[in-house]
Design a protein that fits this description.
The chain has 394 residues and is α/β, with parallel strands linked by helices. The protein is 35% helix and 25% strand. The protein has helices spanning 56-65, 81-84, 87-93, 103-113, 180-195, 199-210, 228-239, 257-271, 286-293, 312-324, 343-350, 370-391, and strands at residues 3-6, 9-11, 14-16, 21-22, 26-27, 32-34, 37-40, 45-48, 73-75, 98-101, 120-122, 128-130, 135-140, 150-154, 159-163, 216-219, 244-251, 275-280, 296-306, 309-310, 330-337, 357-358, 362-365. Bound molecules: MU-OXO-diiron.
Length: 394
């Protein structure tokens, strides 16, 4: 697509409608896009990021459609190949162009793409590059979500090019956000899957951004925000320490015992006014689970004990939850066993990154009966009490 978004600032990215998986892990129900932007000043022209190498031809076609004969700079905000992978092709098509990036990103680009040293111009935080009436300022913002990440700010137009930060995996013919509800969901999913482990650092970077005059936020995935407050406010909420009166019940059951316990707990929590998000781990979209982790005060892992430990499906989910480091305050474990095991300790180990308190587990031999259901109601009561302590009565 070729669309002028501001005078002299042209969208030249690619919509990937069909892609359904990212990193061979992350589901993409709405596809994705690789956004790239051409900024033309009176003297120089810069391309901000490129596209996934699988779509390089479309990027080059977009530049050709504009009649671009000379490109002075390729600004690389982030070295991950879905944005940098077409840089070698752009350099081949425009041999005079230099790659402008920070030192760390340059290292990665040399390692990943074997771009020669002499092609780089290295910038530091706060450096500016004048294109003639268009001034690019570089903001080093590490760990959103790699250590080399950088934002580029076009001063005259107040456009902030954020690469992955504030992005959404959302292919659309709308260059700007039109369906706010759909984009909010896609951006939350994206935050949960990619940015959540870096919540504290994002909050710090946002303090700096809040002091800037931003008219447009132009990420490298998903629609552009022409009302930046929309996504800035969403991120303020998601990255805050506030949790909601919600419990995630993530369960797997082999012969019905764990399912019966999960169902009793779900009913007990619901009766007590707690919001419950239920995920059958054998069927769930892990992106949906990640999204629920953004807000929930408590996670309950419900799993049978298999060969002395949690069911492997629960192990996989726990591994991902641990990697995403949600702000969850409490963890519960519900398990049914046949002859013994270490499921509770194993889950504590698997979830060690969480700054969460483990509530007393409910451990049942075989199929649950009278006292076991009372124990589950006790867990529900404890959750209600602990939520009141951290959330209040809202
Ligand atoms: Fe969209 Fe971290 O790459």
């Amino acid at each position: 697509m070729v669309v002028e978004i501001r005078r002299g600032v042209i969208y030249v990215g690619v919509q990937d409608w069909d892609r359904r998986l990212f990193d061979e892990l992350i589901p993409l129900p709405d596809g994705t896009s690789y956004n790239a932007y051409l900024v033309t000043g009176k003297e120089k022209t810069a391309l901000i990021d490129t596209v996934d190498p699988s779509r390089k031809d479309e990027l080059l076609d977009n530049l050709a459609e504009l009649g671009l004969e000379r490109l002075d700079y390729v600004i690389s905000n982030h070295a991950e190949p879905d944005h940098s992978g077409a840089i070698p092709d752009v350099l081949e098509a425009y041999p005079e162009a230099k790659v402008v990036t920070n030192a760390k990103c340059g290292e990665f680009l040399r390692d990943l793409l074997h771009i020669p040293e002499e092609k780089f111009i290295t910038v530091n935080d706060g450096d500016v590059l004048s294109l003639g009436g268009k001034t690019l300022e570089f903001i080093i913002a590490p760990w959103v979500h790699w250590p080399e990440t950088m934002l580029t700010y076009l001063r005259e137009d107040g456009v902030l090019f954020t690469c992955d930060l504030f992005g959404s995996h959302f292919a659309s013919s709308d260059i700007f956000v039109m369906d706010r509800c759909a984009v909010h969901i896609a951006a939350k999913r994206y935050y949960a899957e990619i940015m959540m482990p870096f919540r504290g650092l994002i909050r710090k970077h946002m303090e700096r951004l809040r002091g800037m005059d931003i008219n447009l936020i132009a990420p490298s995935h998903g629609p552009i925000y022409d009302e930046p407050e929309f996504i800035l406010n969403a991120y303020s909420d998601w990255t805050s320490d506030r949790v909601k009166n919600e419990v995630i019940v993530a369960f797997v059951s082999m012969h019905g015992s764990t399912r019966r316990m999960a169902e009793h707990l779900i009913a007990s929590l619901t009766e007590r006014g707690v919001g419950v998000r239920v995920f059958n781990l054998t069927q769930t979209d892990l992106g949906e689970l990640a999204m629920a982790l953004v807000d929930a005060a408590t996670i309950v892992m419900a799993t049978p004990t298999v060969l002395t430990g949690p069911h492997p499906t629960a192990v996989y989910a726990a591994y991902l939850i641990n990697a995403l480091r949600p702000k969850t305050k409490f963890v519960g474990v519900v398990t049914s066993y046949g002859w013994g095991g270490k499921t509770v300790d194993a889950l504590k180990g698997l979830l060690s990154n969480l700054r969460a308190e483990f509530l007393p587990p409910v451990v049942v031999r075989g199929h649950p009966e009278g006292d076991d259901f009372q124990a589950l109601e006790g867990l529900a009561e404890e959750i209600v009490k602990r939520h009141k302590e951290v959330i209040g009565n809202d």
